[in-house]
Write a structure and sequence with these properties.
The structure holds two protein chains of two kinds. Chain A is of the alpha+beta class. Helix content of chain A is 20%, strand content 42%. In chain A, strand 7 (98-100) and strand 8 (107-109) form a beta hairpin. Chain B has a single domain (4-391), classed as Orthogonal Bundle (Ammonium transporter fold). Chain B is mostly helical. The chains are: A alpha+beta, B mainly alpha.
């Protein structure tokens, strides 16, 4: 199993969720976060002065999916969240050791 | 002679109407995305402050000075010359202040059309031009002895002056400034619905001062207006609730929007119709405005917070309904239902002229301001949100 964490533009969330759902990816944890990337945020020019806006609102989606599905999930996020401009976000893929279902206490071993 | 009872009453009504302006700010602030929440409230305060100064410098005189050809008032009251502590029933100063809070509120309603994308500096310039060139003449026509008053058009508390004018001006402004970035493709859900309801509550409360105070004295007519106002608001809330229920779940924003639709529609009528007539007026206004909102959405118009659907269309309906339901026993004039179809025609003419003038004049003013200094913030500023881009503040901690 892999965890795919996507940090994206908030306004793209509805379309990416719908696209993931259409391809059978239902489980996700979503949070509103603030963040910045290599540009250190945005610098707005106001009357000649530069006003830095360091942290920009983003939405973080965390999904745990079978390793075989990772490419599909990444592709769907890219297709729906890319504008081509700075601030489109990041996708992180992490290994998952095990998953414990709280309702039953059953532990799923990660697949190979 | 000063009537102390009337003076006490109008002083309180003036303060109540003032509270409607931040009420509009909270209502609009809750409806926009969180990054523009402060901006909407700030625009309401800016509108109120701007008009307060403009009104005492020249606005009051343009609206209520000696009539010039039925179109505009003279400048003899500029800088409040001759406006003092004496007056007919209430002090002239108080009458001036009561009219001032109406003018401030009206400009705040217009911000609906430019929500989430207006540059403050341009709004200041636009607001001054708009209140001088659009609001002041309209107030003069209806209340200052202008052509509409001479014709006998009925507008008790501002159905044409405040609501039709702000609604159609918001539409014209929205067409000039253009749609918000991502309108139609990105979700633009309200960020804080309880805040919308709080703003709506302040509006409903302030509206008692707005309509009952328009009797300009503390008498039976004020009581009639007060009761009619509440009944129309309640009927509008319930009719919108039912209409929304038929299509799905009845949202709370719809309920409060229906109440405001009812309040808008009863505004021109409150001192001319019976309280019972407020039931059909309010209920029908809820349905008219609900329909107008769907029309606006279907046409893809980004008149963002529906001042046109609720204030503009509700105002038209209310002005026409006044010509239908007016009865001489209340305000001295009969309407269509009481055998005076001529009154309905007068209302129709008044509405048509006010719609055309407020839309047309606003469109031109907006185009000029846009050409000279640009109405709109840059794309990047719009993306970050006006709270940070224009005010350097944020509701996030």
């Amino acid at each position: 199993m892999k965890m795919v964490t996507a940090v994206i533009r908030p306004e793209m969330f509805d379309s990416v969720r719908a696209a993931l759902e259409a391809d059978g990816i239902y489980g996700m944890t979503v949070s509103e976060v603030m963040g910045r990337g290599a540009q250190k945020g945005i610098a707005l020019r106001f009357r000649g002065k530069v006003m830095p806006v360091e942290l920009i609102p983003k939405v973080k989606i965390e999904m745990v999916v079978p390793a075989a599905d990772v490419d599909k999930v990444v592709r769907i996020v890219l297709e729906n969240c890319r504008t081509g401009r700075p601030g489109d976000g990041r996708i992180f893929v992490l290994p998952v050791e095990s998953i414990c279902r709280v309702r039953t206490g059953q532990i799923d071993q990660a697949d190979p | 002679m000063i009537d102390t009872g009337a003076t006490a009453f109008i002083l309180i009504c003036t303060a109540m109407v003032m509270l409607m302006t931040p009420g509009v700010g909270l209502f609009y602030g809750g409806l926009v995305r969180r990054k523009n929440f402060i901006s909407m409230l700030a625009l309401a305060f800016i509108a109120f402050a701007l008009v307060s100064i403009q009104w005492v410098v020249c606005g009051y005189s343009l609206a209520f000075g000696t009539d010039i050809n039925g179109l505009i008032g003279g400048l003899e009251y500029a800088f409040l010359q001759g406006v003092g502590m004496e007056g007919d029933g209430i002090p002239d100063l108080l009458f001036m202040a009561f009219q001032m809070v109406f003018a401030g509120l009206t400009l705040a309603i217009v911000t609906s059309g430019v929500a989430e994308r207006i540059k403050i500096s341009s709004f200041v310039v636009f607001g001054l031009l708009w209140t001088t060139l659009v609001y002041d003449p309209l107030a003069h026509w209806a209340w200052g002895g202008g052509w509409a008053a001479q014709l006998g058009a009925l507008d008790f508390a501002g159905g044409t002056v405040v609501h039709i004018s702000s609604g159609f001006s918001a539409l014209a402004l929205a067409l000039v400034i253009g749609k918000r970035l991502g309108f139609g493709s990105h979700g633009m859900e309200p960020n804080n619905i309880p805040m919308v309801l709080l703003g709506g509550a302040l509006l409903w409360f302030g509206w008692f001062g707005f309509n009952a105070g328009s009797a300009l004295t503390a008498d039976g007519l004020a009581a009639n207006a007060f009761v009619a106002t509440n009944i129309a608001a309640a009927a509008g809330a319930l009719s919108w609730l039912c209409a929304a229920w038929v299509r799905g779940r009845p949202g709370s924003i719809g309920i409060i929007s229906g109440a405001i639709a009812g309040l808008v529609a009863i505004t021109p009528a409150a001192g001319f119709v019976t309280p019972m007539a407020a039931i059909p007026i309010g209920a029908a206004a809820g349905l008219v405005c609900y329909g107008a909102l769907f029309f606006r959405v279907k046409r893809g118009l980004d008149e963002s917070l529906d001042a046109w659907a609720i204030h503009g269309m509700g105002g038209i309906f209310g002005a026409l309904a006044t010509g239908v339901f007016a009865v001489a026993a209340i305000g001295g004039v009969d309407g269509l239902l009481y055998g005076n179809p001529g009154q309905f025609l007068i209302q129709l003419v008044d509405v048509a002229v006010v719609v055309a003038y407020s839309f047309g004049a606003t469109y031109i003013i907006a185009k000029v301001v846009d050409a000279v200094m640009g109405l709109r913030v840059t794309e990047e500023e719009e993306y970050v949100g006006l709270d940070i881009a224009q005010h350097g503040e944020s509701v996030r901690v």
